């Protein structure tokens, strides 16, 4: 998993509440178990017409936001089914940070496991960032995880809270496998002791 330290990029505004996981990545794209290749279908039913043409006024189809790495959205983001394909699609598109007033619990947890930083902020601060995000190509925002500060295009800053353990994992690029491998020497020692003590196992 890639480390998350400081992210500077364009923030895309998606002023919608209750964005569910079927909106993020529709069910027909859940056949894969790969974490890559889903970005092109992120928000598929909003990004494309039924015949596959781009919907011109959808935010991620606009020139200013095609390379957005931050998404600012409404409350209860990631609700619905618990599909992990949702953060996979967001990450594969290139978004590393989602900012909203609240998140569905399973989606929120899945973000951390996939190297995405979900930030919860009060509605008035989200509204400010949403306004910043509407600046198009000038909507450049910096998210400093170590300092826990978001800096907007005008230089104003907003502090955010994050669980210390999750912060540690993101800063060091540690998913569940990475955390386990940190104990690799102790695991190997245990296995060797067990092999010697119980050779019949």
Automatic annotation (TrEMBL):
Pathway: Amino-acid biosynthesis; L-leucine biosynthesis; L-leucine from 3-methyl-2-oxobutanoate: step 2/4. Pfam families: Aconitase_C. Residues 1-124 form the Aconitase A/isopropylmalate dehydratase small subunit swivel domain. One of its GO terms (cellular component) is 3-isopropylmalate dehydratase complex. GO terms for molecular function: 3-isopropylmalate dehydratase activity; isomerase activity. It comes from the Bacteria. One of its GO terms (biological process) is L-leucine biosynthetic process. Keywords: Amino-acid biosynthesis, Branched-chain amino acid biosynthesis, Isomerase, Leucine biosynthesis, Lyase. Heterodimer of LeuC and LeuD. PANTHER family: 3-ISOPROPYLMALATE DEHYDRATASE SMALL SUBUNIT (PTHR43345:SF5), 3-ISOPROPYLMALATE DEHYDRATASE SMALL SUBUNIT 2-RELATED-RELATED (PTHR43345). Catalyzes the isomerization between 2-isopropylmalate and 3-isopropylmalate, via the formation of 2-isopropylmaleate. This is 3-isopropylmalate dehydratase small subunit. It comes from Magnetospirillum fulvum MGU-K5. The lineage of its organism: Bacteria, Pseudomonadati, Pseudomonadota, Alphaproteobacteria, Rhodospirillales.
């Amino acid at each position: 998993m890639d480390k998350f330290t400081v992210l500077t990029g364009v923030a895309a505004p998606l002023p919608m509440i209750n964005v569910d996981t079927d909106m993020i990545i529709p069910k027909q794209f859940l056949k894969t178990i790969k974490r890559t290749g889903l970005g092109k279908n992120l928000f598929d039913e909003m990004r494309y017409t039924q015949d596959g043409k781009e919907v011109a006024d959808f935010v991620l189809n606009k020139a200013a936001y095609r390379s957005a790495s931050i998404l600012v959205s409404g409350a209860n983001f990631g609700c619905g089914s618990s599909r992990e394909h949702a953060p996979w699609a967001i990450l594969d598109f290139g978004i590393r940070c989602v900012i909203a007033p609240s998140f569905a619990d399973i989606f929120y947890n899945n973000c951390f496991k996939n190297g995405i930083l979900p930030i919860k902020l009060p509605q008035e601060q989200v509204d400010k960032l949403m306004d910043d995000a509407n600046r198009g190509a000038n909507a450049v925002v910096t998210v400093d995880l170590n300092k826990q500060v978001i800096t907007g295009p005008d230089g104003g800053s907003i502090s955010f809270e994050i669980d210390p353990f999750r912060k540690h994992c993101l800063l060091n690029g540690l998913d569940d496998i990475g955390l386990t491998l940190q104990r690799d020497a102790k695991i190997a020692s245990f296995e060797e002791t067990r092999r010697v003590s119980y050779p019949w196992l």
